[in-house]
Amino acid sequence: MTMTKLRDSFNVYLKKQATEEQELINSLSKRDEELRVLREQLRDKTVRLAISFEKRLKQDQRRVENTVESNTPSDIEKDFSEFFDGERLDACDDIEFVLGPSGEIEDNVYYPRLACLIFETAYEQVKEARDAACDLFQNVTSQLIGEAPRMCQELCHARKENGASAQLPETFDLLTGRMDEGISTDVLDGMMLSLKETSHLGNLDCFQKDVRKIVWERWTNCMSEMEGSFLPRPSEDVLTRLGDYIKACIRLTWRMVTQVPPMQLEYGAVQFDKDLHKLARFQHRAEYSRGADHLSGQVIACYLWPALLEAGDRIVFPGEVMCEPESDGYVVISPSLIP
């Protein structure tokens, strides 16, 4: 009987040890998983830091164009994110440099809003031009096809007289309307693809004057409205200081709209959408831990940066917005500072 009890007691002990061993194994496995996650997070942060550092080192080489670049959507996504954390913040610093020392409302709202307005305006101008590009290509292609026999004969004569380097100047009658003549879609698609592939190389100086003019008109008009515009006081010196930023906005938005199909900016929503927007960083409060669902439907006061969308409305980069303050709201800016 004694041996039986001893054996049973030993078996119980073994089971207990086995249970404790399994619990220890499970605990170690959990720690291993946590360690793996931390290592991945550290690796991601290291990569982002390296990219940011490299970008800062190359800031003086912005005008050196990369002839190998193919301007893919992934390139745009990466550059758009870097633009948000780089050129946009530099523009805000330049605005402060011209207008003088600023307070919380200027740093968090007015200056980012002006940088956003410039980016939106550049996008609208290049988007309009891109939409006209298809009509332009169709127009010129149609005339080339119709005049090809004559033009080719003249080119042959010129080459016989002046050699293979002979040039034959030609003019085209550009029609402002859309042409309905049947041109192969393959030809047009190829030309639009070539436009996209070389969008980082083209001379875009032609847009600068219009962008600056429209920004100034919108800026001054907003300041004359009854309601607050969330913009600093108008100053042409600011736009002069932001000359390089305006060029950078034009270049990036041109690369966006020449994608096939074009990428789009969204900055016209009235209400907060947790999938499309993120709340301005300064507007978070402790109760925000309830989650982004709490913000859905809140009225947007202004955009501080537009959202970037791919074809099919896939969200590539969420827009940053400031929502209207409410009595129980999450706004940390004093209401007295809001115009």
TrEMBL record:
Protein localization: Cytoplasm; Mitochondrion matrix; Mitochondrion outer membrane
Alphabetized UniProt keyword annotations: Coiled coil, Cytoplasm, Lipid-binding, Membrane, Mitochondrion, Mitochondrion outer membrane
NAD found in the keyword field: no
InterPro entries assigned: MIEAP, MIEAP_C
GO cellular component, one term: mitochondrial matrix
GO biological process: mitochondrial protein catabolic process; mitophagy by internal vacuole formation
GO MF terms held by the record: lipid binding
Protein name stated in the entry: Mitochondria-eating protein
Native source organism of the sequence: Pocillopora damicornis
